[in-house]
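Case study.
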Amino acid sequence: MILRKRLLAFSSAMAVMACLPHPAAAAPWVRSFVVGTYEYAFRYGGRAGYSRPGEIEPGSDCIHGSTIHFSNGEQIRRALKFQSWRSPEEIHTVSTLPDLEQAKTPDQARFMIWDRAMSYRGWRHGIETYINPFAAQDPGQPQVVSRIGDGFNLDGKIGVNDFVSPDGEKGVDNALYRAWGCDAPWRGNGNATLDLRSNDKMQEGLYTMVIRISGNQDPMNDKDATLEIGYSPDKIVKDARGQVATDFSYRIVKTAQYTKMKAKVANGVVESEQVAELHAPRIAWFYDHAGDANFHQGKIRLVIDAEGNAKGLIGGYRNWRDIYAQNTFAQDGGQQGVREHEDGVALYYALKRNADGMRDARTGQNMGISTAYRITAASAYVVDAKKPAEITILTLEEKRREAYLRIVANMIKATTTRIVQDVTPGTSEGAYPNMERAIVGMPSADYFLKTLDRPHFDDDVQEAQASK
Amino acid sequence: MKLDRRFLLRGTCQGAAAAMALPFLDCFLDTNGQALAATGERVPTRFNTFFYGLGLTKSLWVPKTAGLNYETTIQLKPLEAFKKKMNVFSGSRVMIDDNPNFQHWSGVGASATGISPSKTGLFDSKTIDQTVADVISRGSRFKSIAAACAGDPKQSYSSLGGANNLPAEASPLSLYTRLFGPGFQDPSRGDWKPDPQIMLQQSVLSVVAEDRKRVTQNFGASDKARLDQYFTSVREAEQQMAAELKRPDIEAKVTIPTAPDEMVVNSALPNMRLVLPLMARLGALAMATDQTRVFNLSISEPGSQMFVPGDPLGYHQSTHEEPLDPILAYQPRVARYNVYSMELFAAFLTELDSIPEGDGTLLDHSLVYGFTDVAFAKIHALDGIPVLLAGGASGRMKTGHHIVGDGNPVSRVGLTVQKAMGLSVDSWGGGSMETKSPYTELLA
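After joint prediction, the assembly is written out as follows.
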């Protein structure tokens, strides 16, 4: 009887022990990913199912909808009237293009004339606008009015301009969203033009971003994990449906666009420490402007799902002039403007106005703007290469990258010294020589050639001028 | 009495001999209608390309089901009449490897050569029409002909590789003059005779032939290679002249029209609707009379500048400026332009299909490779680039299928084309797009 009771007690004890949660066995673990989409974390506030022809609908984020800069003659006229040196007749002719139908390709002529005109909006004749945005009047940029936004509380404070995250976290710093979230090419419910385009180019092979998380405890709960983010020279593998394929191997480059940081994992949510500088690939859709996104006070948060895929945010303060340059000179300022209905000048002032970090002790100006980028990533194997891997160099595109870097250098010099800088050759900035080609055959071609400024290069570099 | 295509009705008229040719009759063909009865030579299979810029809208053109009997989609509706005479390829991919995505060019280069281009505006190798022409064009007056309906001779996607693009005829009149102007002799006429001018030119080439061997003996490798390339083109000229000294092997039941008038040729859609049928007709007649066996027709540059008068944006700008409709999830204005391109393609096929030939039509004895520059123009995407293939290639191509590419390289279609055209080729393309896998299910 006693034995039976002891056996019963023992069995009961074993049963209770079996029901208690066991601490996971400590063992090294690695989870890694290849990034499939990479976008600014702009929260779309439009209503589903609401449509107004030709426009992305208004919403709680942007009460007037997306930007419509340069979308029609009236918008062009508004932009031109700020330049007192233009005659009323010139403003009328450029904005209405009376003999456009006689151009061989009217749409191209319209596009190039407006591109050229919008590239010269300085306080005097001959100042290229996108290199010298300070020299043009602020045309105004609609800003995000919503209080809900994605991102991180980077400064540990709760400010009046901060957002509240969808999860209720206060003090979210994402001033880039405030400044730029209504911008047409970046606003949409999964269909923003430049989100689609930059993701397509990344998946096509322009660059590859990988993430590797490792630890010694439980992959779902580890207080001492390590997170690495960086560039891979291996192109993203897609499956038959055109989606990013899972479980392929990618090498990681550790010499540039790379950061290793401590992280904690709690219930599958990975949260990195905040590091002084977080290097990772930047959003790009051309080789010229691809490169390092340097997030100051940067951090990463990822949620890993049951399939082993991840989504989350990478954030920090980025130099706002870098963001301006990487966006505006991806093609040329006028092209971004007329095609995407975005005004680089408005963007310049909006970024400057909303800059909220990286204070320059000497000038007292904020050089950075708080940001967050949204990531989705597929399960992958991120491996150290036997031979050190490096960033892929496309020799054929290096000339264009050099031209891009020259124009960016001129813009930074111009905006920091407020001394007007010239257009540098090798880009299509100012629609040169594309406008000259597009207006052939128009009766008013000579008028536009005389009236509209253009970059002035020596004859030999004019010939070498490349256009995208 | 056995007649052949060269039979002449003879007689005397006022004391002089007279002869009159017969039109092309079915009795000239064998019982299958596939070969000329007298010589046993098959009716030649012709090859065509059709280029249109800016692709199609995926949700509106890709059929929902694969294989035969797929439901025609909105953007393929203009081609409905040819559904059983064509194949549709979705899900094809252009791999650019370590080359840049040259906007509007990478897709053109890859579709035409199977190789991702390393320079914008240039093909990295001979284009598919020239590869095919090398094999099938022996015996025709022109190795190939290109025509551009929008009036720009640069809108030709026919090249010997590198900078050696072959310019297009840019108006119906120039195309007519090239094909049926000086030097043309209607093969159905009884008074056909070799052109003395051609005979003279050929004899000059024969005279220098010996000298060319002597000259090249002491040259270095690069000069030899350059000269070899040069003499290859000379040899091709010789072959072409030889062809011109011989009456074409086939004759068709066609009438060569008079020269068209000068007309406005540009990217305006109403003009293109007038110009394309004329050019297509001339190309079809040229193939029917064996002036050429390869005809390339384009309606635009990559990044088409087609426009409807009154539309300030036109086609290309619309792809950039028109937002995606939040409900429809596509660009409605762009979608309309997509359909205009397909209507023009249908007009081309109509001309080919209107010429009876043996047991079918010229289209049945042709293959038409319809290709474009992008899959989704707004973002210059290359994944899912559309390819359309019309014609039965004289029975060597099964038709009526929707082939789902599943991300396979677009070069698979090109290899299939070459197999159907009877080329002895095992692989095609370069880099990640090199393939040894034609769509064998389509090859008869």
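Observations recorded in class. The CA atoms of residues 115 and 378 of chain A lie 39 Å apart. Chain A has a mean pLDDT of 91. We will return to this complex in the next lecture.
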